[in-house]
Amino acid sequence: MAKSNADLAFEAKSKIRQSAGDKALNLFFVVFILVFAVVCITPFLLVVSASFSDETMLNKLGYSIFPRQFSLDAYKLVTTAGDIPQAYIITIFTTVVGTFLSMFLTCTVSYAMSVKNFRSRTALALFIYFTMLFNGGLVSNYLLIKKFLHIDNNILVLLLPSLCNAWNILLMRNFFNGLPDSLAESAKIDGANDMFILWKIILPISKPGLATIGLFYALSYWNEWYKCLLYIDTSHSKLYTLQYLIQRILRQVNYAANLPSEAAALQGQLPTYSFRMATIVVTIGPIILLYPFLQKYFVQGLTVGSVKG
Fold this sequence. Notes:
The chain has 16 helices and no strands. The chain is mainly alpha-helical.
C-alpha cells in the first residue's frame, strides 16, 4: 500500500532530525551559548571574589574566582564609613515612588497620543519629540530648581525632574499603537470612557511594554547620584542616595590611600581595591535581582514598541 503524504513528510522530518549535520549544529549552538555565558558571568564572579578577599593577598596574587584569603574588611568599611541603611531607604523610596509616578504619567500621555480621535495628538507628539532635540542645559535646569521651584535639599528634587522621559513616552505610544483598535472601540460601544479603557483593558494586556519602560525608569532612579551632587548640601546628608554616598566614601578612601609617607601604616590597612569591588556588589545587588522576573517581558516589549509606528 502506498504511503500517504503525511507519512512521507513524517519520515522526511525524522531523517532531518537524525542527520549528523543537524546534531553537530545543535551541539555547536549549545557550546557557544555556554562559552558566552561563562564569558559574561566571569567578570561578575571576579568582582564578588575580590570584594571578599584580603587586600594584601589581592595586591600580591591578583584576582581569582575564589578568594585566596577570605576577609570582610571591605564590607566593614562600607557599613562604617557612611549611613548606608539611610541611603538604601532613600534610594528604594525614590525608585519605587518615582517609577510608579513616571509610569503613571508615561502611560496616560502615551495612550492619549495613541487615540485616533484625539485632535491634538500630533501636536503633543511633536512637542515631546522637540524636547529630545533641544535641551535647556545645566544652567537653566539649575536655576529652575534652585531659584524658582526651591526644591533643593528636598526629596522632591530626586523625583520631579525625572518624572517623564520623552523617549519612553514615544516608545510606549508605539506599543499602544500596535494593539488592536477593536478593543477600545467595543468598550466605547458599551459606554466605557477613555480612563476605564486604559486601566481595565489596555494596561492589563500591555505587560511587555510596562515591564520594559518600568525597568528603564527603575534603573534611572536607582543609579541617581548627579542630582545629589548639585542640589543637596552636606547639611542634608540624610537625603543622599546610595550611589552618591558610595561615591563619596570611595573618594575618601582613595584620598586616604594616597596620603604622604607619614601615613604609610594607614595606607597598608585600607582595603582600597577590595572596597571598590564591595561597593559594586552593594549597589547593583538588589536591582540586578529584579531583571530575571522581567526578562520574559523585556525583549518582547522592546522589540514590539520599536517596530510599530
